[in-house]
Each structure stands twice: as structure tokens, then as C-alpha cells.
Amino acid sequence: MTLNIQQSIENRGMRLKQSKQLVTVGAILAALSLIGGAACAARYAGEGDSVSVHYTGTMDDGSQFDSSEGGDPLEFTLGANQTIPGFEDAVYGMRVGETKTVTIPAARAYGPRSETLVMEVDLEDIPVGSVEVGQQLQVTFTDGRARIAVVTAVSETTATVDANSRLAGEDLTFEIKLVSAR
Predict the structure, then answer these.
(1) Which helix (H) or strand (E) holds 28?
(2) Distance between CA atoms of 14 and 37, rounded to whole angstroms?
């Protein structure tokens, strides 16, 4: 349905003029919504915004690996590379109060597993007393980067350590709720 409008619409001191134009009823309703509800407009998350989200992360098998529920929301700045890339991508364009579920492929999460991050280390080079399977150690690479590595095997003279993230090589599913964007 279309209407020919030759009048002004006034609302809250703002004026929208449509003169001799063919306008759909939907466009009129949209214009009235913008005029009357500008202060109520939804806030969308965009580049540079400081955002707060609640999230629950699960693996392909449905097991939960992390959640902010019951605690403070995760806060970060969009575009500042403070989270895994796929998580940040998912928050862009969300409306405050919106909840969505996304699956992030390994390449946009913690990346693929790298066998170069699995190393055999002489026990005499490990500055702690005894070493056990499952123990976490900080490993410093030649370029100065430090990572947490997990001991996966121990022999009489060496320990095998894995510096891959436990989530490397995994597609991850997140339920995300945007709490605030400012």
C-alpha cells in the first residue's frame, strides 16, 4: 500500500517533511519509529567499542571448557585483538541484550596443533625439583616469548612437554550474550 504525502509529521520537536513523494506505509512507520524512538535505539557493538559479554564455550562433543556465567562478564575492546579472532568477529554487530551461538573453526580460535611445540627437554634443564606428567611449566623460547607447557611424558633423563594450547586444533562453540557496548 502506498500513500501520497503532502504534509509534515511532527513529533518531540523534530520535523520530517515529505513533499509530493510516493512513500510506502513501511517507510512512514520506520520514520515515525526513528523520530519517536531515537533515544531508545538499540546499541550495536562496533570497532573500538569497549564491550562486556557473558559466554559459555563448548567443544564439539558438547563438553564445556569455559564460562563467565556466575561471575563477571568478559570485557574487551573490539579491534584490539584481546580475544581469539573468531570470538571478536562474532561480537561485531551484536545488539546489546542479544544472545547468539557461533561455532568458530580452529583456524579462527587457537589455531592448529603444532608438533614443533612438543619438545623433549633434559631434566637437568628444568629448574624444578621433580617433574610429573600433567605438571605445567613455563617455557621460554629463543625469541623471548613465554608459554605454559604441559608435561606429557617423563623418562629417567628427559621430559616431553607440549606448549600447544589445550584448545589448539579444536572447533569451538560459544553462546555469547552482549551485556554492554560503549
Answers:
(1) helix 25-37
(2) 11
The C-alpha cell at 10 is 511532527
CB neighbour burial string for 54-63, b if at least 16 within 10 angstroms, e if fewer: bbbbbeeeee
pLDDT tens column, 139-182: 888 899 999 999 999 999 999 999 999 999 999 999 999 999 99
95/67 same-domain check? yes
Q: Domain residues for 134?
A: 115-162
Could you tell me if residue 83 is inside a domain?
A: yes
**Torsion of Cα atoms, 123 then 114 then 164 then 146, to 10°:** 70
What are the pLDDT digits (tens) for 113-122?
A: 999 999 999 9
Asked whether the whole model's pTM tops 0.85, one would answer no
